Amino acid sequence: MDMEPPRIHRLDEAVVNRISAGEVIQRPLSAVKELVENSLDAGSTSISVTLKDGGLKLIQVSDDGHGIRYEDLPILCERHTTSKLSKFEDLQCIKSMGFRGEALASMTYVGHVTVTTITEGQLHGYRTTYRDGLMEHEPKPCAAVKGTQIMIENLFYNMTARRKTLQNSADDYPKIVDLTCRFAIHHKSVSFSCRKHGATRADVHSVATSSRLDAIRSVYGLSVAQQLMIVEASDDDPLSSIFKMEGLMSNFNYTAKKATVVLFINDRLVECGALKRAIEIVYAATLPKASKPFIYLSIKLPPEHIDVNVHPTKREVSLLKQEVIIEKIQSVIESKLRNSNESRTFQEQQRIDSTSSVSMTESKDSLSHPSPSGSRSQKVPVHKMVRTDSQDPAGRLHAYLQIKPCSNHKGSSLLTSVRSSVRQRRNPRETADLSSIQQLTKEIDSGCHSELQDIVGHCTYIGMADDVFALLQHNTHLYLVNVVNLSKELIYQQVLRRFAHFTAIQLSNPAPLPELIMLALKEEDLDPEGNEDAELKEKIAEMNTELLKQKAELLEEYFGIHIDSSGNLSRLPIVLDQYTPDMDRVPEFILCLGNDVEWEDERTCFQTIAAAIGNFYAFHPPLLPNPSDNGLKFYKRDPSDGHEMRDTAKNSDSVKEDIDHELLSEAENAWAQREWSIQHVLFPSMRLFLKPPTSMATNGTFVKVASLEKLYKIFERC
Ligand code: ADP
Ligand code: MG
Question: CA-CA 20 to 30 A from 344: which of 197, 251, 413, 572?
Fold first, then answer.
C-alpha cells in the first residue's frame, strides 16, 4: 500500500509560545528572578516575595515602584512588549535588567497571572488577569498601595511532565531564599523579604542600608560578615581590558562546606562558571585547608563590552576580554589572601610574594605593556572596531578580541609560578611534572604560526560549508578551515594549559571500562560476530582495564579523568566551558588511553594523554549522517523489514519508505547542537587561545578560497 508523506503543518501558536515560555521560565526560581528584576527596574525601594509550595502553587512579588499605566495593561503580557528597548542598537547599552519583554508573557503561557498596580497620583489601582499573552477582562478598579503586585498561580499547570518533575524534587524555596539574599547584598538600598505563604516570619528580611557589610550581616549573619575583606581591582587600558571591580571576600578564618560566589556584572546578577572556578582554584591553592570562599563581586564594564543576550534567561553573560579580566581578578584575590595569610602559614622568603602582592593598579603597567619581542597587537579603539557579522550576537563581542600573547602570558605565568610554589611546598615531588608541562606549553608558543594566529584571532565566522569545513572571513579574504583539525589542536593545547586544574563533567552512570573497551574493539572489527578472537578481545580489555586502574591517580589528578576502584569511568574533564564531547566516542577514547599512551617518559606521557583527549573532544561530525543533505536516505525505513533500514542504495526512491522519526530527530539535534557549539564555543575560544602550529599552514587545515578584492574586480568587469 502506498504511504503518503505526512503533512507538514505550522504548530499552533499557543504551542510555540508554551515551548519558548518554558525556556525562559524554567522553574519557579527563574520566574521569581524575572519578577524581582522587573520590580528593581521599576525603581522600587521595597520588594517582598511570598511563595506557596515552592512557587508552584503561588508566587507573589509586591513592590513599591512606579507602577504600570492603565493604558499599558492590555498589552502588558504580549510577547515582545517592553518599555525598556526599542532599537537593536539599544541592546549595546542596555542598563535595565529586562529588555526583551518576554518574561511576563512567558508566565501567562505557563501559569495564571494576576496584576494589581497603581501609578503615582491615582486614587485607586487596577487589577486584571492574563492568560496566553492576553488580558482576560477589563481592568477592575481596586484599592491599592503604591506599586505593583504580580501573582502567578499554578505554574506549569499545562506542562504535566515539568510539573511532576518539579513536584518530585526538592522545592525551589531554599533557592529562592538564596536568590533574595544575593539581591539584598547588591541592592543594599532596597529592602527585601521572602516568606512562605501564611508564615508570619520572613526567612530573609533585609533592611535598606548604606553599608554593604551591614547588608551582608543582615542576611548572612555576623559569622560571615566578620570574616570579610575588601577587594578591588580595575583596569582602563583599552589594549588589555576596561573594568572596575569591588567586592568583599572571606579570609583564611572563614570555613564553609560550599563556596558562595555572588557575582553582579553591571548590576545584573549573573553566573560566570569560569570566574567562579578561577576563584575557587585560588582559594584551594593558597589556603592550607583548601577553604571554600564566600565572595561578593560587583564588576562594571562598558555596556558595549558585555553581551547580555546570549542566554534565554540572561543568566550567563559573555564578556569582552573575559580571560584577561578573570586573570586579573584572580591575581588580586590571590595576593589579598596571601597577604592576610602570610604571617600564619607562609613565613618564608619566596620571591614571588613581592610580585604578586602589588595591587592590581600598580602591576597593571607590567601586564599591559607587552615586552617588545612579540608585540603585534595594534591599538584599535572600541568604536572603530568593525563588526562584520550581524547575525552573530554572541560571537560579536569576541570578534573584537585582540590576542595579546605577551601580556596574557605574563599574567598566567606569574600565577602558575605562584601556584607551583604553593604546590611545591605541599608536595615537592610535583615540581618535575610541572617542568615537563611547561616545556610542552613552550613548544606550543614557539611552534605558533603568526599569520595563522592572526587569522584565527581576528576572523569572522560565516558558517559551515560542509560537515568539516567552516567558512571564515579575515580582512578581505575568505578561508575554508577544517574544524576537526582546529578543534583537536585547541583541545590539546587547553588540556596542557588547564593541566591539574580541571573541573569535572560527571557521567550520569559510571561506565565499566572492560565494556567500553570491548565496544571499541568490536567497532574496529570488520567481523563483529566472529567468535574466534573473542577471547583475545576480552584479554585485551582486561589488561587495559588493569593498566588504567593503575594509572587512575595520575589521570584523576592531572587530567580530571576519574576511574573508580572497581574500574568504572565516572568523570571527564571540562576542557572548553559549555562544551561536552560526543559521548559516543568514549569507548574509542578509553581504548586509545590504554593502547596509545606512552606511560614511561613523563613528558611524552602527558603529551599523548592530551592528544588522546584532543582526539576525543574534537568537533567531529556526529556519527549519525547529516539529515539536511543526502543523509536523509539513512533515516528511511522499510516497514516490512527492519534490517534494510540502513540500506540506502536499494530503497532510495521507493514510496513505501517511512522515516525513522526518532532517529531523525536525534540526528537533527546532534547536528544543530554541533553547529551551535562551533559558532558559540569553538570559535570564541579559538580566537582567544589557539596557537596554530606551523604544520597547519600546509596540511590543508586552512584553504584560502577567495580574495574579495579580486571578486569585486571581477564583478566590476561584468
Ligand atoms: P522586560 O522586563 O524585558 O521589559 P517583562 O515581560 O518582564 O519584559 O515586562 C514587560 C513590561 O512590563 C516592562 O517593560 C515594564 O514596563 C512592565 N512591568 C513589568 N513588571 C513591572 C513592575 N513590577 N513595575 C512596573 N512595571 C512593570
Ligand atoms: Mg523583565
Answer: 413
Whether the per-residue pLDDT at 377 is higher than 60: the answer is: no
For residues 117 and 125, is the Cβ–Cβ distance under 8 A?
yes
Quick one: which atom of ligand 1 is closest to the CA of 76? 12
And the C-alpha cell for 463? 558558517
CA of 38 to the centre of ligand 1 (A): 5
Atom of ligand 1 nearest to the CA of 67: 25
Ligand 1 atom, smallest distance to 100 CA: 3
Mutate to test the pocket of ligand 1, among 35, 66, 95, 104 (most ligand atoms within 8 A of CB): 104
- For the segment 121-131, the average pLDDT, to the nearest whole number, is 94
Which ligand gives the minimal distance to the CA of 80? 1
Q: Are 567 and 513 in contact (CB under 8 A)?
A: yes
Q: CB–CB of 306/93 below 8 Å?
A: no
User: Residue 478 pLDDT more than 80?
Assistant: yes
Average pLDDT, the chain: 78
Instruction: State the distance between the two ends of the chain, measured CA to CA, in whole angstroms.
Output: 55
Cα of 115 vs centre of ligand 2, distance in Å, is 14
Backbone angles phi, psi at 615, to 5 degrees: -65, -40
Planar angle of CA 150, 153, 155, nearest 5 degrees:
115
Q: Which residues contact 178 (CB under 8 A, 6 or more apart)?
A: none
Q: Is 177 helix (H, G, I), strand (E, B) or coil?
A: helix
d(CA 404, CA 290): 32
- Which ligand sits nearest to residue 77's alpha carbon? 1
Residue 534, CB-side half-sphere exposure with 13 Å CA sphere? 5
State which amino acid sits at residue 623: L
Q: Which residues does ligand 1 sit against, CB inside 6 Å? A: 34, 38-39, 42, 63, 65-68, 76, 82-84, 98-105, 148
Distance 102 CA to ligand 2 centre (A): 7
Closest-approaching ligand to the CA atom of 66: 1
Q: 130 C-alpha vs ligand 1 centroid, how far in Å?
A: 14
pLDDT at 50 (0 to 100): 97
Assign 509 a pLDDT band (cuts: 50, 70, 90): confident
pLDDT over 50 (residue 398)? no
Mutation test of ligand 1: which of 17, 41, 61 has the most ligand atoms closer than 8 Å to its C-beta? 41
At residue 53 the predicted structure's pLDDT band, cuts being 50, 70 and 90, is very high
Residue 144 has pLDDT above 50, yes or no: yes
Which residue has its alpha carbon closest to ligand 1 atom 23? Answer: 39
- Beta-strand relationship, 294-300 and 260-265: parallel
- Compute the distance between CA of residue 146 and CA of residue 148 in angstroms, rounded to an integer: 7
Q: Which of 697, 686, 280, 680 is nearest to 494 (CA)?
A: 686
**3-class SS string, 674-703:** HHHHHHHHHHHHHHHHCCCEHHHHCCCCEE
Whether 578 has a pLDDT exceeding 70, the answer reads yes
C-alpha 275, offset from chain centre: 11
